[in-house]
Amino acid sequence: MQNQRCLPALARILFAATILCTIFAAPIAARAQSPYKILDQWKLTDAGGWDYLLADSAAHRVYITRGDHVDVVDTTTGKLIGTIGGLHGTHGIALNPDGKLGYISDGGGNAVVVFDRFNLSTVATIPAGTNPDCIIFEPATKTVWAFNGRSKDITVIDAASQKVVATLPVPGKPEFAAADGKGNVYNNIEDKSLVLRIDAREKKITATWPAGCESPSGLAMDIEGNRLFPVCDGNKMSVIDASSGKLLANPAIGDGPDAAGWSARHQLAFASSGDGVLSVVDATTYKTIQSLPTKRGARTMAYDAATDRIYLVTADFGPRPAATAENPHPRPPMVPGSFEVIVVGR
Fold it and tell me: Which one of 210, 230, 255 terminates a domain?
């Protein structure tokens, strides 16, 4: 009988505990689902265009390629730490997991430039193909991969010896790439609307798949879920099974994308577009859950998983020059001193 009298009291305790868990869990869920917004805007007064940028979470830095130099910015203050100069036309940055060295694809110099991450000095200059663009570090083989846009091939560099160990032809213009850490490299072929899977150990193409959308540029990867997220013209992102090449979905994104990002913690894919929109895609439903207005020209981005922040770059522009026979599609000039980093978070 004593045990039966205890049952209502136990039920009341369990009910109260459930209510408390619900109360405390609600703000956490709300925070997880809260929309992204612009948190800050940092001005960098140095001249130069830009291409890709890369966040270094551990060092609280973001690297930004700026034509003849690379800006290194402190993400806690928004201040310029320093620059890596003496370059010719930079495109991308890769970092060695050893924390000591970084790599720049110097497209104008047809080279990969190795730099010291402590003092930002140049350590080595390694010849590559013509106009290296995307660059990644492949951890399973400890190699650096530079994707050469004009010679349509890939330069593979051994990180230890800093020597070229392979040159791999590809069937078109290579754009962005991703590595799964298990020895597979994936690469968008922009002019053929393809995605390649490459065996990093054997240095050979093992699969060629349709990208599922036109002119794929940026590429993000869900390593645990084995999914690829190319971003394309026509306001489309593809979701591709990285084992079979099967197209899983085509979420809508902004116009003129050039970069993508992935949040494993929140199961979100991102696309930054030249029309000034940051698209946020829920990777559990393949629905676009937010289209955040940023600023026209903010087409490249870097995602910092440690802080759940996104860094985009753009500038103000003057009137577009008249077309000529030599330059039928001229770009409008950048207004001096208008370059900025847009910080997005929640």
Answer: 210
